C-alpha cells in the first residue's frame, strides 16, 4: 500500500538543509484539501498587489527576425523593446525565432516527462546552491530564505556557456 503522505524533498542552500514538498506531490495527495503546509499560504500582510493599469497590458512580444534580418532602426527598436520587457515584465514572448515546432513540442513533452518522474528521481536535482547549480529542481529558488513558497515546481537548466542536461528522462537530452 502506498503512503498518502507527500514526499519531502531536501534542498540545500548556503550550507543549510531545507525540506520542501513538491507542488505536484501536494496537489496529487488525497489529503490535499486538509493539509496545505503553512509555507504555501499567504496572509493579508503578504498580499501581492498589482498596479491596476498593468493588469490589462499584453505580454511583450519580441520579433527575433527583426534582430537578425531587420534594418538598423528595426534592430535598435527591438533591442530597446527587449530590454524594456526584461526590466518591466521579466519575460516576453518570442516570435519568428526559427526553432522548428517539432523541436518545441519534443521539449515540452520531455519537461512533462521530467515532472512525472518519481519524486526521488527529481530529488537528485534539488539544488544545493541557490545560484550556482547548473541544473536545479524545486518549488522556490531559496526555500530556506523565502517566507512563502510559490505554487509551482520548476527545473532550471543552464545551457550556456556549457551545455547541461538531466540524465532523466532518457529522451530529455537532444
**Helical amount among residues, as a percent range?**
25-40%
Total E-strand runs: 6
Secondary-structure element series = EEHHEHHEHHEE
Helical run tally: 6
| Rg computed from alpha carbons, rounded to a whole number of angstroms | 20 Å
Major beta sheet, strand line-up: 1-2
Q: Which consecutive residue ranges, at least 5 long each, have pLDDT under 50?
A: 1-18
Main structural class: alpha+beta
Portion in strands: 5-15%
Principal-axis shape equals globular
Q: Can you give the mean pLDDT?
A: 77
Identify the quaternary structure here. single chain
Describe the sheet with the most strands: 2 strands, antiparallel
* N- and C-termini, Cα separation: 37 Å
Structural notes for this entry:
The chain is an alpha+beta fold and 174 residues long. The chain has a domain at 8-50 and 100-157. The protein has six helices and six strands; from the N terminus they run ββααβααβααββ. The strands form three sheets. It has a two-stranded antiparallel sheet with strand order 1-2. A hairpin with a 2-residue loop joins β1 and β2 (16-21). The protein is globular. The two termini are 37 Å apart. The model is unreliable at 1-18 (pLDDT under 50). This is Non-haem dioxygenase N-terminal domain-containing protein. Keywords: Iron, Metal-binding, Vitamin C. GO terms for molecular function: L-ascorbic acid binding; metal ion binding.
Amino acid at each position: 500500500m502506498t503512503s498518502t503522505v507527500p514526499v519531502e524533498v531536501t534542498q540545500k542552500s548556503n550550507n543549510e538543509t531545507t525540506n520542501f514538498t513538491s507542488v505536484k506531490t501536494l496537489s496529487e495527495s488525497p489529503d490535499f484539501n486538509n493539509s496545505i503546509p503553512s509555507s504555501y499560504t499567504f496572509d493579508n500582510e503578504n498580499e501581492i498587489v498589482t498596479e491596476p493599469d498593468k493588469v490589462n497590458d499584453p505580454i511583450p512580444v519580441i520579433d527575433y527576425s527583426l534582430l537578425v534580418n531587420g534594418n538598423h532602426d528595426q534592430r535598435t527598436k527591438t533591442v530597446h523593446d527587449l530590454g524594456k520587457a526584461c526590466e518591466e515584465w521579466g519575460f516576453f514572448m518570442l516570435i519568428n525565432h526559427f526553432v522548428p515546432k517539432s523541436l518545441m513540442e519534443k521539449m515540452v513533452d520531455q519537461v512533462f516527462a521530467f515532472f512525472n518522474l518519481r519524486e526521488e528521481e527529481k530529488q537528485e536535482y534539488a539544488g544545493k546552491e541557490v545560484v550556482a547549480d547548473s541544473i536545479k529542481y524545486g518549488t522556490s529558488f531559496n526555500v530556506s530564505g523565502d517566507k512563502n513558497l510559490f505554487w509551482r515546481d520548476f527545473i532550471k537548466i543552464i545551457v550556456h556557456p556549457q551545455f547541461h542536461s538531466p540524465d532523466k528522462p532518457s529522451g530529455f537530452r537532444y
